[in-house]
């Protein structure tokens, strides 16, 4: 299988750079040694950007080539497709129209998506209230709904490619300065909290009965931990407290930079940033990146070497985007058996559904059938990109007959172009495209009209309403 280079159409990005520098098309064309008519064609997406010209633009205007990547554009297009698949719109918009909106009016497109997200949350809340009360007068529903803030916080973290330089380097510097590798990590972190911040750590045997993992008593300067807490979770909790105690100024600065409104949105970002610091401290960037490269990203080896959990390893791999020392760009998703997304970050083109279910062909669902076993897959998305995807369930065993174990799956994936750097490619025949599983971003946004696994109609197509014939593919469309 050959991995070809797709034509790059990025007219809106070229136009944005030109306007930022205050150039006319003629002035910019002169700097790039091309004709103004040629530049005009590029800006209007009538001509792709050749590789050599792209390098010239990057050197001339001091921008990174990643600026021209269309990851965010792809996500916006897919979300617009999902939104307009709602029967409320009775929409017959085509994919080209969604693409034009994402390219030419990205801000407006994002605000429209946010508006739809708030509408869905409000509608679901009203349905809940109406089913819970016999009164015709529904109670007041506050404007500050939880879900939009949760989504907004997650979208902002995604927009930063899940990498926060100041946080990451502060954690790594602390790890090296305190020689935290000289003793078991949880012991070293516990000693650091006591010596530097006079914070005691005690184990509370009652927490298991109270279904509590940890509690920090600020007045008593005591961290209470459940005795059932796994060692890797204990280290993470201690590292998180160090971040919130000693590096609160850096965390606050990062939160203010988000531009999100004060209240729930910023509080959710704080949780994400605090967790990020903890991950960066227990898995310091340089050491972990080097180990990942040496082991060819063998998740089990990395888990044992750093004495962390499978989820912690996978999540940390998705954050290795330090400028000049980037790791492989991974996507990371955590989901339950019903397909609910618990966490999602992507440094790649890969994008999942925002408003509907996940693709039924994805190996994440296969992993639930074989708990604890790694499921690998060559996943091909709708634009032809192929990804190496690995998934595994995680969860602790039940403590009694009456406990219903909560089991979730972790998915980690990257482009097949990195196959030589990934240990799992040795078990996959990437030279035979018959091994590629045709996945999509979820039925509502998926353009595969011939998929037998489709659950709902796709947006952007007219349905074939004929009742005289039933094909193997549900929701046939008129072309």
Automatic annotation (TrEMBL):
CDD domains assigned to the protein according to its UniProt record, in alphabetical order: HTH_XRE (cd00093)
Keyword presence, DNA-binding: yes
PROSITE patterns given in the database record: HTH_CROC1
SUPFAM superfamilies: lambda repressor-like DNA-binding domains (SSF47413)
A cellular component term, taken from the record's GO annotations: cytosol
HTH cro/C1-type domain mapped to chain residues: 14-68
Sections of the chain in a coiled coil: none
Keywords on record: DNA-binding, Transcription, Transcription regulation
Domain of life of the organism encoding this protein: Bacteria
Single GO MF annotation: DNA binding
Family per record: Belongs to the short-chain fatty acyl-CoA assimilation regulator (ScfR) family.
Record protein name field: XRE family transcriptional regulator
Organism: Acetobacter aceti
């Amino acid at each position: 299988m050959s991995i070809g280079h797709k034509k790059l159409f990025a007219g809106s990005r070229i136009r944005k750079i030109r306007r930022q520098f205050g150039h006319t098309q003629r002035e910019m064309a002169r700097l790039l040694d091309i004709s103004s008519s040629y530049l005009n064609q590029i800006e209007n997406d009538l001509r792709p950007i050749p590789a050599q010209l792209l390098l010239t633009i990057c050197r001339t205007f001091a921008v990174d080539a990643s600026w021209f990547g269309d990851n965010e554009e792809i996500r916006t297009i897919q979300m617009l497709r999902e939104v307009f698949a709602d029967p409320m719109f009775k929409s017959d918009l085509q994919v080209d129209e969604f693409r034009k909106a994402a390219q030419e009016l990205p801000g407006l497109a994002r605000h429209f998506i946010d508006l739809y997200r708030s509408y869905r949350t409000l509608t679901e809340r009203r349905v809940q209230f109406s089913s819970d009360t016999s009164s015709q007068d529904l109670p007041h529903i506050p404007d500050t709904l939880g879900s939009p803030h949760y989504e907004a916080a997650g979208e902002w973290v995604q927009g930063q490619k899940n990498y926060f330089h100041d946080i990451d380097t502060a954690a790594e510097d602390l790890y090296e300065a305190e020689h935290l590798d000289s003793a078991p990590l949880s012991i070293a972190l516990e000693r650091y909290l006591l010596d530097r911040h006079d914070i005691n750590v005690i184990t509370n045997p009652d927490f298991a009965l109270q279904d509590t993992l940890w509690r920090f008593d600020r007045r008593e300067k005591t961290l209470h931990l459940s005795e059932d807490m796994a060692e890797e979770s204990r280290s993470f909790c201690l590292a998180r407290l160090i971040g919130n105690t000693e590096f609160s100024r850096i965390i606050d600065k990062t939160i203010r930079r988000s531009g999100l409104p004060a209240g729930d949105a910023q509080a959710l970002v704080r949780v994400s940033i605090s967790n990020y610091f903890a991950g960066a401290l227990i898995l310091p960037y340089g050491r972990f990146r080097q180990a990942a490269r040496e082991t060819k990203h063998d998740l089990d080896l990395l888990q044992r070497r750093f004495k962390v959990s499978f989820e912690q390893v996978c999540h940390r791999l998705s954050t290795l985007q330090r400028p000049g020392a980037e790791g492989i760009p991974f996507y990371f998703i955590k989901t339950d058996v019903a397909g609910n997304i618990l966490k999602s970050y992507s440094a790649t083109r890969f994008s999942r559904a925002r408003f509907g279910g996940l693709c039924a062909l994805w190996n994440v669902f296969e992993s639930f059938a074989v708990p604890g076993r790694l499921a690998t897959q060559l996943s091909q998305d709708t634009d032809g990109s192929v990804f190496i995807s690995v998934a595994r369930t995680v969860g602790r065993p039940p403590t009694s007959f009456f406990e219903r174990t909560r089991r979730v799956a972790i998915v980690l994936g990257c482009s097949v172009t990195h196959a030589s750097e990934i240990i799992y490619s040795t078990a996959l025949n990437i030279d035979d495209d018959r091994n590629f599983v045709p996945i999509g971003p979820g039925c509502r946004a998926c353009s595969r009209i011939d998929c037998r696994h489709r659950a709902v109609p796709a947006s952007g197509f007219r349905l074939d309403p004929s009742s005289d014939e039933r094909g193997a593919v549900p929701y046939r469309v008129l072309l």
